[in-house]
Amino acid sequence: MKANLKTLRSRLSAALAVLMSLTVVTAVEAYDRVNGEGFASRSPVLATQGMAATSQPLATQVALDILKEGGSAIDAAIAANAVQGLMEPTGNGIGGDLFAIVWSAKDKKLFGLNASGRSPKSLPFEYFAKQELESIPSHGPLPVSVPGAVDGWFELHEKFGRLPMKDLLAPAIRYANQGFPVTQLVAYYWNRSVPILEKYPGFRETYMPEGRAPQEGELFRNPRLAKTLQKIADGGRDAFYKGEIAREIDRYMKENGGFLSYEDLASHQSDWIEPVSTNYRGYDVWELPPNGQGIAALQILNILEGYDLASLGRTSPEYVHLFAEAKKLAFEDRAKYYADPDFNQIPVEELISKQYAAERRKLIDRERAAKRYDAGNVALRHGDTIYLTTADKDGNMVSLIQSNYRGMGSGMTPGDLGFILQDRGEMFSLQEGHFNQYQPGKRPFHTIIPAFVTKNDKPWMSFGVMGGATQPQMHAQIVINMVDFGLNVQEAGDAPRILHSGSSQPTDEIMIDGGYLSLEDGFPMETRRALVHKGHQIRFESGPYGGYQAILRGDNGVYHGASESRKDGQAAGY
Fold first, then answer.
1. With contact defined as beta carbons under 8 Å apart, do 453 and 460 qualify?
2. Is 452 inside any structural domain?
3. Same domain membership, residue 161 and residue 203
4. Which of 92, 254, 456, 529 could form a disulfide with 402 if both were Cys (CB 3.0 to 4.6 A apart)?
5. Are residues 473 and 398 in the same domain?
6. Domain identity same for 348 and 478
7. Which one of the listed residues 90, 315, 385, 390 is annotated catalytic?
């Protein structure tokens, strides 16, 4: 017993020594503002006729231009997404997937769109075992699945669009031909991706025209992408999935050891789905059901609703501890149950029920961090993404997220098409019998999730936070920051964030050591010290805390826009 106590004291002393060495980097950063929270980077942007918030200022301006021309919020979102695919190839593009939640002012309801693609029909599960692979590679031809974004655009446009698709794609085509200045964060990630991706056919020609990645402020052109977007503008979605573009992708994949085929592209379709929700202290928080991870945010909120968080305080060790434990519980279910519903009967209703949350809550020890949890019994970290939200004068609002997944995608850059194919197939499990087991024609587990909040059956906030497994954690934190801690829409995003990593994953990893916590600058040393005493591992990390955009609609119809201070973006309205 004494030996165990001695060992425990030794470990605590070592952990505290590490924490003390980080004191200098955990000081609160404050802005010289005469009101509001000291950590807020700016006031919310206010407007009445329209609003856009994206991670690229030029994309935000394009969205506003579309709104001013009479386009709907949906038109503006499509145009902005097309521009971001060009200007932020580090996070998205037409080689990736898309999800959206739309508030229709006319219908007075939310619509959900799952525009994610499926695995190649010609790639059998047994192939991976024959290649002696224990997991699907992160790059190259094997993780490539059907890109769903373009079909997603046309589905959204058919249902809610006003302006011709040619008008919506024209700004992206113009910028692709004429060039645009590369922003700071995009330049950083672009240069970081080059050593990994430059070996894949077509990448250097498209993304390294001068033999290197562009630097911040340099002009970059992508005439290949301009031609591809023009074909889509002229020929519609079939130009991508059944025309020259599809045939070029098929040819390229066959030449380079891939399986994605013309047939896979030609048979692709998006699905309109019902968003699901939980009520958190009077606010209905909406997410899309699996194959995405959105309901993890709802599970976290349901568990935490049982505690008086407001009395604990936003930076208290008690709150951080409860948040981390609730996240661990939700992510065990995420690892076991979240997958393509076409291949599984996923118990979504049970997972997001208050009764289930109450049972899971009983497992939390308020004084001690758990090393592991098991997934509940219910009746039958690397992500690069963009998130944007738009709103128009009629009250329509769009919450849209789009991604190539890891880094700039698979590296596979077909011919002269000007874009990279996604590597989302990496997210399949190779464990036989797993809900998320790889199967031909199946959608992989997805990390990208849009969110929406309504109150009294009226739209309140469209929001999202990009960044892999960070996303459901930050969705929950944004809601808690506003509902429990009274922050405004910009402060809720600027507030220092909690990130727990190391949970069990849908790709077969199992948490056995409790994972670890990363706390952004702004959490007191006393909080970090107390969390170590509760058994948490604390690490200092820079950069993994996600990227947030939001639009809140006031009772008087005024839009309040917010943009991520950690990214290159902008919220703007008129």
1. yes
2. no
3. yes
4. 92
5. no
6. yes
7. 385
Residue 385 known to be catalytic: yes
SS3 364: coil
Residues found in the chain:
574
Sequence letter at residue 237: R
Sign of CA dihedral 188, 191, 196, 200: positive
CA distance 520 to 499: 8
Element (H, E) at 220: strand 219-220
Tens of pLDDT along 438-486?
Answer: 999 999 999 999 999 999 999 999 999 988 888 999 999 999 999 999 9
Q: Are 535 and 324 in contact (CB under 8 A)?
A: no
- Is 568 inside any structural domain? yes
The string of pLDDT tens digits covering residues 308-365 is 999 999 999 999 999 999 999 999 999 999 999 999 999 999 999 999 999 999 999 9
Q: Please check whether residue 3 lies inside any domain of the structure.
A: no
Please give the Cα distance from 116 to 128 (Å, whole number): 23
At a CB cut-off of 8 Å and minimum separation 6, what does 55 contact?
Answer: 84, 88, 91, 386, 387, 388, 466, 547, 549, 563, 564, 567, 568, 569
Q: What is the dihedral of CA 150, 155, 161, 163, to 10 degrees?
A: 40
In a domain, 13, yes or no: no
- Domain containing residue 536: CATH number: 3.60.20.40
CB environment 20-50: b (16+ within 10 A), e (fewer)? eeeeeebeeeeeeeeebbebbbeebbebeeb
Written as six digits, the tokens of 365 are 């020890």
CA dist., res. 147 & res. 405, Å (int): 11
For residue 501, what are the β-bridge partners? 516
Mean per-residue pLDDT of the chain: 92
What's the rounded Cα separation, in Å, for the pair 470 and 100?
A: 18
Domain that holds residue 256: 52-272+384-427
Residue 317 structure tokens: 């060790």
| Distance separating alpha carbons of residues 296 and 303, to the nearest angstrom | 11
| Residue 411 and residue 373 share a domain | no
Contact 64, 56 (CB under 8 A): no
Q: Token digits for 452? A: 């929406």
Q: How many CB atoms lie within 10 A of CB 16?
A: 16
- What's the 3-state SS for 514-528? CCEEEECCCCCHHHH
Q: How many domains are contained in the chain?
A: 2
Calculated CA dihedral for residues 211, 213, 214, 216, nearest 10 degrees = -150
Maximum C-alpha span of the chain: 77
Q: Where are any strands of DSSP class E within 231-382?
A: 271-273, 276-280, 283-287
Amino acid at 440: P
3-state secondary structure of 207: helix
pLDDT tens, residue by residue, 516-553: 999 999 999 999 999 999 999 998 887 788 899 999 99
Structure tokens given for 304: 């935490």
Ramachandran region of residue 154, left (φ > 0), alpha (ψ -120 to 50) or beta?
alpha
By the 8 A CB rule, do 86 and 420 touch? no
pTM confidence score: 0.93
Record the tokens describing residue 133, joined without a space.
């692979």
Tokens (6 digits) for 530: 């107390």
Q: Which residues contact 476 (CB under 8 A, 6 or more apart)?
A: 297, 300, 301, 304, 323, 326, 327
- Residue 477 structure tokens: 């934190």
pLDDT (0 to 100) of residue 28: 44
